Amino acid sequence: MAIPSFLAFDADTKLPPEPAVRALREKLGLPSYRGSTIVLAGDSRIAAEIEGSDTSNAFRRQQHGAFDWANVFLRHRFAVLASTGVVGNTTAQLLARYDRDVLAYQPQNVLIGIGVNDVTNLVPVADIKANILQMVALNASVGATSILCTVNPRDSHSADQRLALAELNRWFLGLAVRGVIVVDVTSPVVNATAMTWKSGYTIDSDGLHQNRAAAPRMGRLIADRLAPLYPSVNPLPVLPADPLNLIVNPFMDGSGSTATGWQIIGAVTGSLVPSTDLRPGNWQQLVSTAATNTHLRQLNIACPPEWIGRRVKGAIEFVFNAGAQMSSIQLQLNHQSSDGSILMASADMSQNAGDSGALSYQPLVDAGAVVFETTAATVKTGTTMFQFILELSNFVGTVRARRGVLTLAD
């Protein structure tokens, strides 16, 4: 449902307390809660979650990654150890690399998204099921919870292949195995009868990969399914003074239209709106009446020399009004050298160049206060400063942001 006005609450306090989490996990036959580290495993749909790596000059979560959106809605309750999707993989191929690409990370949870290539290659459904159950058993052997996603279609499938995929998804949804959580990511983006994607939900209409319109809808279903089963975390500062937070004035104090130490770029109207949820400080509000590109940012943030070689991340909390629209939004953390070169760009919700679909903003509005958190990236030799930028493209409406943080990730 759409939210008629801004939420005046600390969303951290609205999530289930740990006793309720434990009770529900016991009722569903899940392992005792061990933590929220996770490995994402599967095919090209999982490969869409991350662009680049910690050893390159860019390391970004992407707007067409369904689990990435789920983690935004969950306020980054999960720590992603690895995203090991491989283009074209079948369940047998994933099994062949399971020890190296999944179990080696010793995850507490494994999300699996795979199966469409099996159906494309006419692998019998019974074999697909057996391979999935073998992965579940391997996860259980290391105490990890299995999170299984239903399989979205390939529009070029034959009638028999569509029947096979429908059978596989019915099996997923009826699966009753200890240590397994099943998430239906199909219903909001697929025509159930035809087993084809709904119009406008695949990258450049390829009929296979979810785009920026589909991914938030899928992510919202994942988040709603997992929220009661995992205790909340708070990746944001709780006090204005934190020696490990390089962001100046995270609680948006100030006397004018813009919080002290922050910059607003673009044709928007800024104002400070007092927090009403017992948090100190304000929300920095931005209002745009016509589509515009805008930044809320801090530049030239000095990098402590002792942080070289350590991993850092940034995060910020924000909320939209019900009429908000945009073509793209991301939080970007740039690692910069003294000559202005960007040595590393880490981001949450970067737009992939091949994804021309419109961003689905409605799930963001419906979710209330959410959190963007950049990938944790290693500070390279030569880094002297950081840039912290919340960037909105073609933005119309009202957004509020607060509690920015730039800190060590380990």
CATH class of the largest domain: Alpha Beta
Categorize the overall geometry: globular
How far apart, in Å, are the first and last alpha carbons? Answer: 37 Å
Number of domains: 2
> Based on DSSP secondary structure assignment, what is the total number of beta strands?
18
The total of helices stands at: 10
Q: If you had to describe this structure to a student in words, what would you say it looks like?
A:
Strand 2 (50-52) and strand 3 (58-62) form a beta hairpin. With 410 residues, the protein is of the alpha/beta class. Helix content is 22%, strand content 32%. The longest helix is centred in the N-terminal third of the chain and has 17 residues, at 125-141. It is globular, with a radius of gyration of 21 Å. The protein has ten helices and 18 strands. The strands form three sheets. Strands 2, 3, 10, 11, 12, 13, 14, 15, 16, 17 and 18 form an eleven-stranded mixed beta sheet that branches. Helix 3 (66-73) crosses helix 9 (214-226). Residues 1-17 have low confidence and may be disordered. The chain folds into two domains: 11-229, SGNH hydrolase (Rossmann fold); 263-408, Jelly Rolls. It has helices at residues 18-27, 44-47, 66-73, 91-96, 98-101, 116-120, 125-141, 159-174, 214-226, 362-367, and strands at residues 37-42, 50-52, 58-62, 79-85, 109-113, 145-149, 180-183, 190-191, 196-197, 263-265, 269-274, 282-302, 311-320, 328-337, 342-350, 370-373, 377-378, 383-408.
Provide the fold topology.
Blueprint: H1 18-27, E1 37-42, H2 44-47, E2 50-52, E3 58-62, H3 66-73, E4 79-85, H4 91-96, H5 98-101, E5 109-113, H6 116-120, H7 125-141, E6 145-149, H8 159-174, E7 180-183, E8 190-191, E9 196-197, H9 214-226, E10 263-265, E11 269-274, E12 282-302, E13 311-320, E14 328-337, E15 342-350, H10 362-367, E16 370-373, E17 377-378, E18 383-408
Parallel strand pairs: 1-4, 1-5, 3-15, 5-6, 6-7
Antiparallel strand pairs: 2-3, 8-9, 10-12, 11-12, 12-18, 13-16, 13-17, 13-18, 14-15, 14-18
Helix pairs in contact: 3-9
